[in-house]
TrEMBL record:
<protein>
    <recommendedName>
        <fullName>Thaumatin-like protein 1</fullName>
    </recommendedName>
</protein>
<keyword id="KW-0732">Signal</keyword>
<keyword id="KW-1015">Disulfide bond</keyword>
<feature type="disulfide bond">
    <location>
        <begin position="222"/>
        <end position="232"/>
    </location>
</feature>
<dbReference type="InterPro" id="IPR037176">
    <property type="entry name" value="Osmotin/thaumatin-like_sf"/>
</dbReference>
<feature type="disulfide bond">
    <location>
        <begin position="212"/>
        <end position="221"/>
    </location>
</feature>
<dbReference type="Pfam" id="PF00314">
    <property type="entry name" value="Thaumatin"/>
</dbReference>
<feature type="disulfide bond">
    <location>
        <begin position="53"/>
        <end position="273"/>
    </location>
</feature>
<feature type="disulfide bond">
    <location>
        <begin position="177"/>
        <end position="262"/>
    </location>
</feature>
<dbReference type="InterPro" id="IPR001938">
    <property type="entry name" value="Thaumatin"/>
</dbReference>
<dbReference type="InterPro" id="IPR017949">
    <property type="entry name" value="Thaumatin_CS"/>
</dbReference>
<feature type="disulfide bond">
    <location>
        <begin position="182"/>
        <end position="245"/>
    </location>
</feature>
<feature type="disulfide bond">
    <location>
        <begin position="119"/>
        <end position="126"/>
    </location>
</feature>
<feature type="disulfide bond">
    <location>
        <begin position="190"/>
        <end position="208"/>
    </location>
</feature>
<feature type="disulfide bond">
    <location>
        <begin position="103"/>
        <end position="114"/>
    </location>
</feature>
<feature type="signal peptide">
    <location>
        <begin position="1"/>
        <end position="43"/>
    </location>
</feature>
C-alpha cells in the first residue's frame, strides 16, 4: 500500500532528520488517520457475519491446521444481527465458518448442544473442533497480506446442508470477486433417506445429509477406487444439491463451478439465509 510506505518514510523523519526533510506534524497525523481508515496492513481482512434467518444461529469458526485461531470460535447471532471477526494481519490464513441451529443448554447437565452442526464442546465456543454433519460450510483461504496473491473461497455441501449461506468479498478487490452461495433451501427437496428430522415424531426437516454421510460408500465419498476426479463424478444425490445451489460444491470434485477467487479484498461478508 503506497500510504503505508509513505507513512513509514515520514515517521523516520522524527529521528534527527535534516531540517529540510521535516514533515509538519499535522500532515503526519492526517496520513496516520488515512492509514487506519484503509485497514492498516495491506491485504488485512475482516469477516462480517449477518443472520438473515428468521431464527437465531450460533456461528462456528474453525481455523486451518497451519493457521492461528481467530478471537472467537463460536458465538450467538440473533435474527437480523451482525458481528465481526478480524483475520490475522500477517501470513496467509485459512478457515471454515458455519451456522448451528436448535441450540440450548441442558438443564440437568449444563451442557450446550445444537440440533444441527454441533461442534461437541458442550459450550458455545468450538475451541478448535469442527461441526458434526450435515452442515453447510463457508470455506476460505486468504493470501498473505501484501503478497498480491489470490484469496480462494467457496460454499460446500460435501458434508450436507443445514442452512443457506453466502460468502462475498467486500471493500474493493480485483479479479472475479463474485459471491459464492447456496441460497436455495435444500431441506425442502431433500430425498427421504437423507433427511434429518427435528424429532422422531416430527416431519420438520432441519438438515439434509450428503450421500457420503448417509451411506459411507467409496462411490459417494470419492475415496478408494473413486478417489480421483476422473472416477468420481456426480450422482443422483449430488445432483439434488446442485440443482438447488448451482454455485456450491455438491460433491468432493465439483471444482469447475464452485471455487471462487478474489485479490485484495479488505473483508468478506458471510450471510446465513441470504435469500430470506
Amino acid at each position: 500500500m503506497a500510504v503505508a510506505h509513505l507513512l513509514l518514510q515520514l515517521s523516520a523523519a522524527g529521528n534527527p532528520p535534516r531540517r529540510n526533510s521535516m514533515v509538519p506534524p499535522a500532515m503526519l497525523l492526517i496520513l496516520q488517520l488515512l492509514f487506519t481508515a484503509l485497514g492498516g496492513a495491506e491485504g488485512a481482512a475482516s469477516f462480517r457475519f449477518t443472520n438473515a434467518c428468521q431464527h437465531p444461529v450460533w456461528v462456528g469458526a474453525l481455523h486451518g491446521a497451519t493457521s492461528p485461531p481467530l478471537a472467537r470460535s463460536g458465538f450467538y447471532l440473533a435474527p437480523s444481527a451482525t458481528s465481526r471477526l478480524d483475520a490475522p494481519s500477517s501470513g496467509s490464513w485459512s478457515g471454515t465458518f458455519w451456522a448451528r441451529t436448535g441450540c440450548a443448554v441442558d438443564a440437568a447437565t449444563g451442557r450446550f448442544s445444537c440440533a444441527t452442526a454441533d461442534c461437541g464442546t458442550g459450550d458455545v465456543a468450538c475451541e478448535g473442533r469442527g461441526p458434526a454433519p450435515p452442515v453447510t460450510l463457508a470455506e476460505i483461504t486468504l493470501a498473505a497480506p501484501g503478497s498480491g496473491g489470490q484469496d480462494f473461497y467457496d460454499v460446500s455441501l460435501v458434508d450436507g446442508f443445514n442452512v443457506p449461506v453466502r460468502i462475498a468479498p467486500s471493500g474493493g478487490g480485483g479479479g472475479d470477486c463474485r459471491p459464492a452461495a447456496c441460497a436455495g433451501d435444500v431441506n425442502a427437496m431433500c430425498p427421504a433417506d437423507l433427511r434429518v428430522l427435528a424429532a422422531a415424531s416430527s416431519s420438520s426437516v432441519v438438515a439434509c445429509k450428503s450421500a457420503c454421510n448417509a451411506y459411507g460408500s467409496a462411490r459417494y465419498c470419492c475415496t478408494g477406487q473413486y478417489g480421483t476426479p476422473a472416477t468420481c463424478g456426480p450422482t443422483s444425490y449430488s445432483r439434488v444439491f446442485k440443482s438447488a445451489c448451482p454455485a456450491a460444491y455438491s460433491y468432493a470434485y465439483d471444482d469447475a463451478s464452485s471455487t471462487f477467487t478474489c485479490s485484495g479484498a479488505t473483508g468478506y461478508d458471510v450471510t446465513f439465509c441470504p435469500g430470506s
